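hiii so um. not sure if this is the right channel but i have a protein structure encoded as tokens and i wanna go backwards to a sequence. like what aa goes where. can anyone help
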């Protein structure tokens, strides 16, 4: 028991996210269909930097950024989200 208590707890999150900063090697991750991304710039989990380089993987990409939205912009800004979707579908 004392032996296991002396062992440090593994940093599972660091292990899980270790490769996130690297672009995927697989080309199967590339999209050729029109894609709309609606992003809340104040999202504490999905930081805006995750959008960097996305256009390399999506052939027809439209990104709508909502400055004061967090993780669920469809809840906090339903009008803006609805507008973005209508514009995207209607183009």
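sure thing!! here u go:
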């Amino acid at each position: 028991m004392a032996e296991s208590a002396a062992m440090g707890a593994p940093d599972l999150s660091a292990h899980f996210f270790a490769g996130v900063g690297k672009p995927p090697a697989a080309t199967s991750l590339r999209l050729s269909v029109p894609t709309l991304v609606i992003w809340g710039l104040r999202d504490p989990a999905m930081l805006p930097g995750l959008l960097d380089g996305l256009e390399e993987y999506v052939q027809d990409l439209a990104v709508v950024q909502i400055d004061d939205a967090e993780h669920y912009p469809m809840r906090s800004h339903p009008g803006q989200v609805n507008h973005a979707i209508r514009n995207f579908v209607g183009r």
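oh and The mean pLDDT is 85.
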